[in-house]
Amino acid sequence: MKLKLYSLAFFFILLSCKNGADNENVEIEDNGTNNEYNAVGPGIPVEEDASNNESVDRNNTSPEIQAGNYIKTGHKTGQNCQCYCLNISLSETSNLCLVENEMYITSTFERDGDRINVFYNSTSEENKNSDLPWDKFDKDKPIAVLEPQPNGQIHLDWKGFSINGELAVDYAIFGKKNLEGTYEKK
C-alpha cells in the first residue's frame, strides 16, 4: 500500500513540474515592452530570423577593427613606439617588437570575423637574436589575436609561436610582455 502511495505522489510531483512549455517561446511583458525568452533557459534572448525584422545580434557592441597605427594604452606617443605600437595592415607585413632592442619579427594580419589573427612571417632586419629556431616556427597558425573592444580600443591576446601545429612552450612567452594588452588608435 505504501508503495502505491509513494508511486502516486511521485507521479503527481512529476506532473506538477511540467509547465507545458516544452522548449516553446514564451512572451513576457516587462514595463510595456515585449521580450521573447527561451523557455529552456530563462533570461536567454531568442534570436529571430533577420527576415522577421527582429534584431539577431543583441550582444555585439564591438566595432570592427580598422587598419592603421595603434599604441598600447599607458604608453605615450613620444616613447619607443616601435615596441609599444601596432601597424595593422591587411595587405602587407608589419614589424612587431618582441623584446626591445633585441627581438623583432615581421607579421601578417588576417581578418577572421570581427577579430584579426596575427601570423609570424619572418625575422625583421632589426632582429639581433639568432638563438631561436626561427625557420621552424609555423607561419599558418596565429601567434596572436586582436579583438575589438566596445570603446573602440583593441585587445591583443598573445598565443605564442607554434612548431608543427603545437605550441612551442619554450618560446611561447616571447612577445607576451611587450605586445599583449589593450591598444588605442593613434
UniProtKB/TrEMBL annotation:
Keywords: Signal
Signal peptide, first to last residue: 1-21
Positions of region (Disordered): 28-65
Compositional bias per record (Polar residues), positions renumbered to this chain: 52-64
PROSITE patterns, alphabetized: PROKAR_LIPOPROTEIN
Protein name as it appears in the record: Lipoprotein
Organism: Autumnicola musiva
Lineage summary: Bacteria, Pseudomonadati, Bacteroidota, Flavobacteriia, Flavobacteriales
